[in-house]
Amino acid sequence: MNEPNRMAKWITKHPKTVIFFALILLIPSIIGFLFTGVNYDILSYLPSDINSVEGEQILDETFQSASSVILVIEDFNAKEVQQVKQQILGVEGVTKVIWSDNILDTTVPQSAMPSALRRIFYSNDGTATLLLINLDCNCSSERATEAIKSIRSLMNKKCFVSGMSAIMADTKALTISEAPIYISFAIALALIVMSFTMDSWVLPFVLLASLGMAVLYNMGTNFMFGEISFITQSIAAILQLGVTMDYSVFLMDRFDEEMEHTDDRADAMARAISKTFISLAGSSLTTVFGFLAMCFMTLTLGFDIGIVMAKGVLFGVITVVTVLPAMVLLLYKPIYKFRHKRFVPKFGGLAKFSFNNRKKLLALFLILLVPMYLAQSSVTRYYNIVQGLPQDMESVESLNKIKTDFNMSNSHFVIIDKDTPKGKVNSMIQEMKKVDGIENVVALGEYIGAGIPASILPDSIKLTAESGDYQMMMINSTYGTGTDELNAQIDSLNEILHKYTDKGYLTGEGIMTKDLITVADNDFVLTSAISIAAIFILIAICFKSISIPFILVLMIELSIWINIGISYFAGKGISFITPTVINCVQLGATVDYAILMTTRFQEELKTGKDKKTAILDAAASSCTSMFQSALVFFSATIGVYFICNITMIKEICSLLARGSAISAIVIMTMLPPVLYLFEGVIDKTTYKWKNSGGKA
Fold it and tell me: What whole-number distance in Å separates Cα of residue 7 and Cα of residue 11?
């Protein structure tokens, strides 16, 4: 019997010391977690060298207009609007409030106003008016959130606040209020599942306590990044628990085996740590590689999710081989006092069914590949951030009202050199106004063209249109973000812009979303290729085989295609980030199921069993662990689905839950026939398949 290593011995001889340091480390972790910023602006993760992002930077630095709020007041009178305007100007963070009184006296009736001005500031029926509010901070910053709160405190029932700043503030409030609820619900579901699938009523609480520490270590160390995305913040804890729970189960199963050979609990645990660590390291690598593939995305949101989750897996492994053993040794008596029979089904019957129908299941596997690949490739993706939020959210309802009453679904910003000849600028404006879907253009030339002398324009309007080396105009569109119509409109506007100047920028939410579509689609292809290649190479090295990685990766890829393809057949669109997350996470996390069964098949063959007996025994034994793992992953992620109201988060967790179940079912039913029928090929393409070596 191999002796445990020194570190394992030290851990088991000093469990109180391990727990003491583990608890001490929670203090900086909690502090780091509390002071880690959360970014609610997905568009901010676009590459900085894109024209629209560069334009947004100029808006922010030169015009202080990158963060704006739209206020609509119904059944208004001019005096009331002016009072509200003055109150808003006193709000900290507000730089400008623009209304029609910046240009014309309030005594001028709407009917006498220039049409260009009337269409900008008044609704179609004239019963509502619009104010543009500029903030001096990023739309997802705490300062912007506080400014929105202050503005809303000045409003009455006739006022509606929207714009990206307001939407980010509402998203933040919803996330903060819901996260503790759905995390608690997910943990409760996981506890219920583990209580019945494990042989102790106490052990699930111990496992979750140790992994909970790993989650806090991971979330606390995010402080070094300054901030993480709200998507990462929302799913990281649940995802980390789901993908690392296996490691705890592996250790405890090995500990129980070692206890059969000795009465010394510390020695048994030390041996369990030594024997489990290498397999845990190897198993966790596939998951880590899956997450790290996301770091290669051009959209840096991928790096944000990928690095946090890869770090979380590493913390999970470290905690399982240090903190968990110490806790189990200290709580050994209550853990094993309240033991019970596991409520886990036997899988011998499923193994026999799979074997008896091996040719049919192989045929089904091959038949499904092409249609499910095409289905997942054809699923509709949405890129409009607002579409992934509750439609009854105050800012979203206000935005929909603005779209209806003012024919404003999007606002584009054109930035050009200040010295561009006015004749060119006016010609460009006239051409842009003729583009399909353009409602109006807000520019100095439009005001002047409406019969208003440039000399009488107030400084507030001049500064809004010209600042530093640039001049800016706003173009309001009737088309929705992310639609084909808007994207075609943007192409037309860009063509006109660069016809008149080589130093122009076209930016705004709609333009940046169009760039997001291009970037995200390219990223999906890139991350898929990298994650598949990385895990293929890892499996090839572990098994010293060419055929095994091909079989296992293809098996999980089919599971992923079925998972995403279901959304296609159900006629449901998914967010642009969902396929990338699912592809990397489901591949990295559930390929372990396939590795487990293949490893067990190899081990059974090495004992001298014929391949029929070997595959039946391997399938029956590995399906039990697979079932427990998939059930815990499913319960944790589905808990978020039931509670969360942010569609994007809800959707990702729904597909992760569904994906874990699909992967388990596919591996349990289809992998045994494939391994059995292709065992001859595997033997010829794997180094020492049935002899010493070649073991994963």
Answer: 6
Q: Name the packing angle between helices 15-34 and 301-330 (round to 10°).
A: 150
Structure tokens at 675: 């391994």
Read off the pLDDT of each residue in 417-442 and give the average, rounded to a whole number: 87
Contacts of 117 (CB under 8 A, 6+ apart): 100, 103, 104, 447, 450
Distance CA 487, CA 507 (A): 13
Q: What share of the chain is helix, strand, coil (3-state, %, to 5)?
A: 70, 10, 20
Structure tokens belonging to residue 64:
């202080």
Q: Which of 42, 24, 15 is nearest to 220 (CA)?
A: 24
On average, the pLDDT of the chain sits at 86
**Cα–Cα separations (whole angstroms), residue 438 to 119, 451, 478, 540:** 12, 22, 6, 56
Q: How far apart (Å, rounded) are the C-alpha atoms in residues 672 and 158? A: 66
- Average pLDDT over every residue of 618-644: 88
CA of residue 64 relative to chain centroid, distance: 29
pLDDT at 457 over 60: no
CA distance 277 to 269: 12
Closest Cα to residue 325, out of 285, 371, 358, 276? 276
pLDDT band at 68 (very low <50, low <70, confident <90, very high): confident
| Phi–psi pair at 348, nearest 5 degrees | -60, -40
pLDDT at position 425: 86
Instruction: Check residue 409 and give its pLDDT.
Output: 75
**Residue 480 DSSP symbol:** P
Chain centroid to CA 156: how far?
36
CA distances from 166 to 121, 401, 486 (A): 19, 14, 23
Q: What tokens appear for 236 in the block?
A: 């990281």
- Residue 306 neighbours by CB under 8 Å, 6+ apart: 291, 292, 293, 294, 295, 297, 584
Cα distance between residue 519 and residue 524, in whole Å: 9
What is the pTM assigned to this prediction? 0.83
- Judging by DSSP bridges, how do beta strands 410-417 and 505-507 pair with one another? antiparallel
Question: Hey, which bits of 56-145 come out as E strands?
Answer: 67-74, 94-98, 128-135
Give the tokens for residue 227.
């901030």
Q: Which pLDDT belongs to residue 66?
A: 56
Among 56, 47, 43, 67, residue whose Cα is nearest residue 169: 67
Whether the per-residue pLDDT at 2 is higher than 60: the answer is no
Which tokens belong to 148? 């929105």
pLDDT of 695: 38
**How far is Cα of residue 476 from the mean position of the Cα atoms in its chain?**
30
Q: How far apart are CA 152 and CA 175, in angstroms?
A: 19
Task: Look at the block and give the residue holding tokens 């606040």.
Answer: 161
Q: Could you read off the pLDDT of 498-541 as tens digits, one per residue?
A: 998 888 899 888 898 889 888 988 888 898 899 899 999 989 99
567-605 residue pLDDT tens: 999 998 888 888 888 888 888 888 888 988 998 899 899
Distance between CA atoms of residues 54 and 245, nearest Å: 44
Question: CA-to-CA distance for 308 and 156, rounded, in angstroms?
Answer: 42
* Residue 444 pLDDT: 59
What b/e readout covers 316-345, taking b as 16+ CB neighbours within 10 angstroms? bbebbbbbbbbbbbebeeebbeeeeeeebe
Please list, in sequence order, all residues whose beta carbon lies within 8 angstroms of the beta carbon of residue 606, skipping any fewer than 6 positions away.
690, 691, 692
CA 328/CA 422 separation, integer angstroms:
78
Rounded to the nearest 10 degrees, the angle between the axes of helix 230-259 and helix 301-330 is 30
pLDDT at residue 465, as a whole number: 66
Report yes or no: 163 and 132 within 8 Å, Cβ to Cβ.
Answer: no
Identify the bridge partners of residue 216 per DSSP, sorted by sequence position. Answer: none
User: Cβ–Cβ contacts within 10 Å for residue 57, how many?
Assistant: 14
